[in-house]
Design goal:
Blueprint: H1 7-14, H2 18-26, H3 36-52, H4 56-79
């Protein structure tokens, strides 16, 4: 079962400010119901932001593309 976290705990766990998490949520980059998947998403977004110097629009585009790639991988795995 996935554990749910408060905004403050999520911020402490990921090192992402609460303000940034709220902004990511408003932009649809992370979902509400802060759980382990949200932790993974935030860590991925912050790694992309830091390593590539991406702004919010770039993060949205890249996150969407990475999600599509993962869906395609899952579809390929299901075919085997």
């Amino acid at each position: 079962m996935n554990e749910t976290y408060t905004l403050e705990v999520l911020s402490e766990m990921t090192g992402v400010s609460t303000q940034t998490i709220v902004e990511y949520q408003a932009q649809g980059l992370v979902r509400s119901g802060f759980d382990d998947e949200t932790v993974r998403s935030l860590r991925r977004l912050e790694a992309l932001r830091e390593s590539c110097g991406m702004d919010l629009q770039g993060l949205k585009l890249l996150a969407h593309l990475l999600d599509e790639v993962e869906q395609l991988r899952e579809a390929l795995r299901a075919r085997r």
